Give the backbone structure.
Amino acid sequence: MAIITTIALSLIYFIDILPQNYFIILCIVLIIITLILIRLLKDQNPFLRALSCLISILYIIVLSLGITYELNTLDFFKQFGFNQYKTENYEVIVLSNSLYQDLSDLQEKRIGYLENQREGLSQAIQKLTKEIKYQEQKKENIESLLQELKKQKIDAIFLEENELQIFLEENELERENIRTIYTIEIEIENKKTSKEVDITKTPFTIYLSGMDTYGKITKVSRSDVNMLITINPLTNQILLTNIPRDYYVNLADINEFDKLTHAGIYGITSSVKTIEQLLDISINYYVKVNFTSLIDIVDEIGGIEVDSPYEFTTIDNIKFAKGKNKLDGQKALSFSRERKAFLEGDRIRGENHQRVLTAIINKLLTPTIIMNYNDLLTSIKDDFITDLDDKQIRNFIKEELKSPQKWQIKSASLNGTNEYQYTYSYKKNKLYVMKPSEESIKNAQENIKTVLSIN
């Protein structure tokens, strides 16, 4: 009992999320319980000894479970902090009816790729040349590569996964004509963008990026959710500002116009800098999640309840009623992703993102979450990346435990007009975009500034 009590208290000390007075009280209580039980175990009365033995066993079981929780908490906190690398996937693509089945089949064959200076392309080519010898051909765009492939002037195409997906979105019929036979994964160093503040005393803004993929969270992909979470720990205000995925913006560091969602394929730092440039604000930190993250979080907290202003059916045939809807992880994802069911598709989808996020925050702030605490941490620890470090989060939790407050959550969305424009990521044809409304941007700036103001 003495050993397990010492271990439990030591872990609580190292986790460092309990306010000091709470920790001292807990130490005193556990030490007193341990001393009393040890004293009773030595009592001459057989009944007291038997009773204290039973209580001691229960005490050890409870503390053992507590230690499991503590170890999972420590492991979870390792997820926080700047992630040094992002991942790009490059695919070797052949015609569907081709006889090529494996990379080795392309030995001494002709492989084409784009002339662009994408960050990971040269690294991917180096890896490819270590696997096989081939004749290279460069083209300006994917359409030219595909035409060369169809005419059998080249035998395969080498493309980054997201570049291929953007092309296929606009050319759905081409999906049946091609297939991937090999994938090369490249790790590229991230650039740090965080602007650190004491989040227990200073208002701050987090960029939430929701990627349109499952699986590995470090993988670059289009950012379908682009939300700013502005938090004032002094006034207990949270402002959720949604920016439509199709917002037509100038990509930072590239200085070309594109959809905001496409900034994600150049890495999280590209999205952060682009939004800072758009709204003339500073973003302190980011959190990156994907489809897997949302499903796991919602399922582990026991589902959420969302109030929908609309009755609608999603593209995957899930029906939602006007009013209260109870959602598990998969339904929450469908609810969040749907846009084609609405006349103002992307704007309504952004509002639904906010409804889901608000429901998750409210559920996480309820005392009942302790019942799912262990499973929740285990389930989501690999489902997100953030440049918030664990010390900041620990201090924030400690302050909340010291003086719990009711948080006021507000939502806002940027808006614009529908247009068709050329984009940096797909230059051949004009794509649907949303041209930003200057009034909408000004309102967002003022709303964020208001929440950041220390009162």
In short: The domain at 204-452 is CATH 3.40.630.190 (Aminopeptidase). The first strand starts at residue 85 and ends at 95. Residues 79 and 381 are 6 Å apart (CA to CA). The mean pLDDT is 90.
